[in-house]
């Protein structure tokens, strides 16, 4: 196992640099300071963008095979550092170590995928209307990319953006979440070791999310912005990017429904709900938030789900057997508490949980017979809470599931193949999990509809987000 030391320096133009001003990064499980990192600001973002712009022409014109091999080397170094990367993630995000180890595999899979996709940025030939013409399209890298990533998946959200961008010839300025900068700096160190030239990848850390975000979204030399985070912030960034008509791709908020029909395998549905709800303590964009259960199996499902939730071990993610870690901060905890209390005030039955154990730890919770007017029905909770609603017919269940401004992920369980096709086609979501609580992988397009975002990450479409189609018309 490689030994990665916690890196307390920003990474700009191929160098790790100190700063006069720093901020502390806190372990949410213990409240202890892990270390401090540079608290950079707008001027530093401007410098990083300039360096990325200077590096772009050379990287753009580098042989595709060299770019591909460099990204592949990055993948190999990430996998060689799996254990230490996972520990860093758990320290700064609080997620259980088993989940962090899985995230290294998941995040690295995008690097491996796009190392290969770099060779497949295909153009096309088009039948010409005139015999003395030849019509062709080619794909070229869009240019300097700015990426803003969240704290809940501090490695995978980076690789999902950076890998396709650099693989096709773009350069990147990355601003990781201030809660989880050390994972970003660790993978930047590995990119440096893999042979990324100066300026190709830059990592700017800082607490001024508004100022840095505006700089990254409006700079005239930035051609593309990729953001994962809340819909509210996405709206603001989109308005800023519109000033210079930038290419944007946003993965925004979710409020995923989870439908269980009468013909479902109840035990499998319970397992799927546990997987889809409690990963990272419910703090994922595709986390199950609203569980709609058909009346015929409602009582059975509720009983079995409650029993399963009671068995989940809560604690420090570095401790053995822990499946549910802390919330990321006090604001996140207060939102969970407010959602649970609001549901109870409106008639929901608390079957288990519903309490803070200590610090930022909240008991895994099951609420039954939640009223549709409850906040948890239309707001993303981002916590370890299962909210159960009843429905009578397939049509009612689909309508309830679609009754949201969000449309990132949806899930449902049914043994009827005709229903599976019918419901999957009618759910208003960019991704649908059918008889599964997990749906993400590098080969599949990740993204939402409605106010859950624009664009897709992963798959062949993920490379398209960082290229422009150029049309060439040859005359006689």
UniProtKB/TrEMBL annotation:
Q: Which Pfam families match?
A: Aldedh
Ranges for domain Aldehyde dehydrogenase:
20-471
Keywords, comma-separated and alphabetical: Oxidoreductase
Its Enzyme Commission number(s) read 1.2.1.-
Instruction: Please provide, alphabetically and separated by semicolons, the GO molecular function terms listed in this UniProt record.
Output: oxidoreductase activity
Q: Which InterPro entries match?
A: Ald_DH/histidinol_DH (IPR016161), Ald_DH_C (IPR016163), Ald_DH_CS_GLU (IPR029510), Ald_DH_N (IPR016162), Aldehyde_DH_dom (IPR015590), Aldehyde_DH_Superfamily (IPR050740), Succ_semiAld_DH (IPR010102)
Domain of life, source organism: Bacteria
Which residues does UniProt mark as catalytic? Answer: 251
Record PANTHER family = SUCCINATE-SEMIALDEHYDE DEHYDROGENASE, MITOCHONDRIAL
Q: Give the family, as the similarity comment puts it.
A: Belongs to the aldehyde dehydrogenase family.
This protein is called: NAD-dependent succinate-semialdehyde dehydrogenase
Q: What organism is the protein native to?
A: Parapedobacter deserti
Source taxonomy: Bacteria, Pseudomonadati, Bacteroidota, Sphingobacteriia, Sphingobacteriales
């Amino acid at each position: 196992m490689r030994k990665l030391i916690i890196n307390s320096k920003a990474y700009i133009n191929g160098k790790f640099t100190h700063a006069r001003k720093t901020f502390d990064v806190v372990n949410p499980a213990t409240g202890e300071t892990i270390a401090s990192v540079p608290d950079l600001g707008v001027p530093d973002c401007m410098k990083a963008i300039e360096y990325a712009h200077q590096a772009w022409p050379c990287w753009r014109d580098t042989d595709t095979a060299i770019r591909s091999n460099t990204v592949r080397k990055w993948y190999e170094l990430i996998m060689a550092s799996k254990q230490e990367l996972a520990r860093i993630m758990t320290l700064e995000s609080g997620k259980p170590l088993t989940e962090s180890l899985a995230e290294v595999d998941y995040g690295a899979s995008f690097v491996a995928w796009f190392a290969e996709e770099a060779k497949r940025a295909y153009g096309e030939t088009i039948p010409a209307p005139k015999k003395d013409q030849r019509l062709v399209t080619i794909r070229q890298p869009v240019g300097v990319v700015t990426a803003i990533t969240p704290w809940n998946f501090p490695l995978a959200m980076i690789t999902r953006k950076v890998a396709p961008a650099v693989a096709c010839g773009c350069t990147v300025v990355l601003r990781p979440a201030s809660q989880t900068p050390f994972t970003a700096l660790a993978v930047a160190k590995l990119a440096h070791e893999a042979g990324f030239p100066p300026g190709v990848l830059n990592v700017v850390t800082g607490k001024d999310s508004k100022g840095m975000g505006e700089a990254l979204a409006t700079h005239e030399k930035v051609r593309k912005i990729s953001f994962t985070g809340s819909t509210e912030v996405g709206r603001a960034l989109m308005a800023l990017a519109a000033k210079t008509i930038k290419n944007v791709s946003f993965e925004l908020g979710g409020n995923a429904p989870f439908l269980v029909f009468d013909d479902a395998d109840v035990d499998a549905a319970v397992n799927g709900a546990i997987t889809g709800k409690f990963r990272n303590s419910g703090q994922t964009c595709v986390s199950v938030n609203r569980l709609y259960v058909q009346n015929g199996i409602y009582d059975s499902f509720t009983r079995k789900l409650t029993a399963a939730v009671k068995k989940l071990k809560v604690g420090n993610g570095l401790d053995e057997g822990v499946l549910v870690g802390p919330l990321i901060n006090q604001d996140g905890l207060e939102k969970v508490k407010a959602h649970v209390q609001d549901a109870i005030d409106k008639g929901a039955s608390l079957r288990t949980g519903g309490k803070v154990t200590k610090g930022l730890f909240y008991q895994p919770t099951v609420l039954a017979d939640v009223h549709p007017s409850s906040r948890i029905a239309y707001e993303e909770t981002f916590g370890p809470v299962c909210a159960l609603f009843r429905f009578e017919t397939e049509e009612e269940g689909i309508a309830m599931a679609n009754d949201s401004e969000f449309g990132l992920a949806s899930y449902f369980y049914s043994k009827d193949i005709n229903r599976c096709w019918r419901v999957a086609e009618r759910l208003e979501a960019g991704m649908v999990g059918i008889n599964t609580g997990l749906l993400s992988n590098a080969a599949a397009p990740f993204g939402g509809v409605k106010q859950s975002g624009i664009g897709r990450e992963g798959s062949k479409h993920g490379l398209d987000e960082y290229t422009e189609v150029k049309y060439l018309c040859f005359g006689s």
